[in-house]
Amino acid sequence: MINTFIIFQVINPIGKITNNYIKFEKKIAPVLLITLFKIINSSSIIKNDDETKFDWLLSNA
After folding, report:
1. For the chain, which terminal residue's Cβ has fewer other Cβ atoms within 10 angstroms, N or C?
2. Which range of residues forms the domain containing residue 37?
3. Backbone φ and ψ of 28, nearest 5°
4. Alpha-carbon torsion 33, 37, 40, 42, what sign?
């Protein structure tokens, strides 16, 4: 009984942190990705076939 209680005490906070992180990631990650693609797309490094690929990714984000 005591062992199960200790395990639960350890796992429960980890579960809560993971849940909050997943919620945060779902909101923030797409925004960061789109921003990154826009930066790459607007930079002069990639100006060839890749440009159309990034435009396609942005339009389908």
Report:
1. N
2. 2-59
3. -90, -40
4. negative
Residues 6+ apart with CB under 8 A from 54: 37, 40, 41, 46
Residue type, position 45, single letter = I
Q: For residue 41, what are the contacts with CB-CB under 8 A and spacing of at least 6?
A: 51, 54, 55, 58
Instruction: Tell me the residue type at 40.
Output: I
Instruction: Give the residue carrying structure tokens 């797409």.
Output: 30
Q: What angle do CA 25, 9, 16 make, to 5 degrees?
A: 15
Tens of pLDDT along the chain (61 residues)?
Answer: 566 666 667 777 777 877 777 777 777 777 887 888 887 777 655 555 555 666 666 666 5
Non-local CB neighbours of 40 within 8 Å, separated by 6+ positions: 46, 54
